[in-house]
Write a structure and sequence with these properties.
The protein is an alpha/beta fold. It contains 14 helices and twelve strands.
């Protein structure tokens, strides 16, 4: 079976809207959290979010949206997009450019696209309310296409003339990690030569604030400490949105195009907790098995892992669950891999998280550093024994593990190797 490489990435994130800015933010532990203006009301206990800069997508009329001048999106395309569809479109353009792909390279039967998002509650709520109040025939003709889960793959596959395999994934915060894993399988098994894996979310009031009812969001008023995975005083996650696109290619395509590579995707694993619809297994049982499956798939031992990008969202229960899973895998490892959660910088991107953090790992491997776990004042005693790094290390990791977990106890672990 064939080797699979990452050859391109594209970013619209809270810590930067291009590869260079994202790389600098990861190196310098520069976060994207702010006091979010729509949350500054006395009836809203949450104050901090990590919004996307330089884009204005807060109206229901897409023709009023604004985005950086380097991007040009035709009106007829915008009408079928959600805010995160715009982010994904721009990230896709970046990834195509970064991988140096021509239209002939990606618009063919051997190139596919797997994507993940939660849809757009913002637009869906608006269109349903308009239908109820003004009548069925007053609905925007492309309102469904723009707002339901799947809108990202609908738009990108049609706009970029993708002709290979395409679908969307819905496993909450594990969704785009699933997209990468199954995209890897398509190439590994010889079904496709190239795949795009995409994660995207609106990251606005309607996609973030409902988590307040779960008591899952941080209520800190200081953006500098609101997201602090593994800290004893963590109190919830900070919501974000944006998009990340990852280009996966077979070894043969890399050689044919003489393409640069970030890293090899060596394998992946998944498993379910079988425990609770919304809360991780207290011992991280499913994540432990997912990591074991990933290491076995990649023919890698725990001792060989240099760095782990943890799922850790900064919630009291979730971080502890993952810490126990990590101890079960690496507790006896003499090398003790460095561990961090880049959500301390970006916030939690929900279904975007797996693709965004997988791409962060690829960038760190190519550029030669391991991003630190920012904002920790005091490590939770339950995490003692893990090598959680608080600042960026100037060391190039050769083997990296990236974790993602979602509702229902869905767990995914991805393994990357230096190329």
């Amino acid at each position: 079976m064939r080797k699979v490489y990452i050859t391109g990435v594209g970013f619209i994130t809270s810590i930067g809207n291009d590869l260079a800015t994202v790389t600098e933010s990861l190196r310098d532990s520069r976060h994207g959290m702010v006091l979010y203006p729509p949350f500054q009301r006395p009836d809203i206990p949450v104050k901090v979010a990590a919004p996307i800069k330089d884009f204005q997508t807060d109206t229901v009329d897409a023709e009023d949206w604004k985005f950086p001048a380097r991007y040009s999106i035709r009106r007829e395309l915008l009408r079928g997009m959600a805010p995160h569809g715009v982010y994904a479109y721009c990230a896709m353009l970046q990834a195509v450019e970064d991988a140096k792909l021509s239209e002939a390279d990606y618009s063919n039967d051997d190139t596919g696209l797997y994507a993940a998002s939660g849809g757009s509650p913002f637009l869906l709520g608006h269109y349903l309310e308009k239908m109820r109040k003004q009548g069925v025939m007053r609905c925007q003709p492309l309102g469904i296409v723009a707002s339901i889960a799947g809108t990202v793959n609908f738009n990108l596959v049609s706009h970029f003339k993708i002709k290979g395999a395409s679908t969307g994934f819905s496993s909450a915060c594990a969704s785009s990690a699933h997209a990468i894993g199954f995209a890897y399988d398509e190439i590994k098994l010889g079904r496709q030569d190239r795949m795009f894996a995409v994660g995207a979310e609106d990251g606005n009031v309607d996609s973030i604030l409902p988590f307040a009812g779960m008591r899952a969001l941080s209520v800190q008023t200081d953006p500098g400490i609101a997201s602090r995975p593994f800290d004893v005083a963590r109190d919830g996650f900070v919501g974000t949105g944006g998009a990340t696109v990852v280009v996966l290619e077979s070894e043969e395509e890399v050689e044919r195009r003489n393409a640069k590579v970030y890293c090899e995707i060596a394998g992946w694993g998944q498993a379910s907790d079988g425990h609770n619809v919304a809360i991780s297994h207290p011992d991280g049982a499913g994540l432990r098995v997912a990591m074991q499956n990933a290491l076995r798939s990649a023919d890698i031992t725990a001792d060989q892992v240099d760095y782990v990008n943890a799922h850790a969202t900064s919630t009291p229960i979730g971080d502890l669950s993952e810490a126990r899973a990590l101890k079960a895998i690496f507790g006896n490892s003499p090398t003790r891999p460095a561990i961090s959660s880049t959500k301390a910088l970006t916030g939690h991107g929900l279904s975007l998280a797996g693709a965004m953090e997988g791409a962060f790992c690829a960038v760190a491997m190519r550029e030669g550093f391991m991003p630190g776990s920012a904002h920790i004042t005091k490590i939770d005693p339950a995490c003692e024994g893990l090598n959680i790094i608080r600042a960026t290390l100037p060391n190039r990791p050769n083997v990296v593990l990236s974790n993602s977990s979602g509702f229902g106890g869905a767990n995914v672990a991805l393994v990357f190797k230096s190329a």
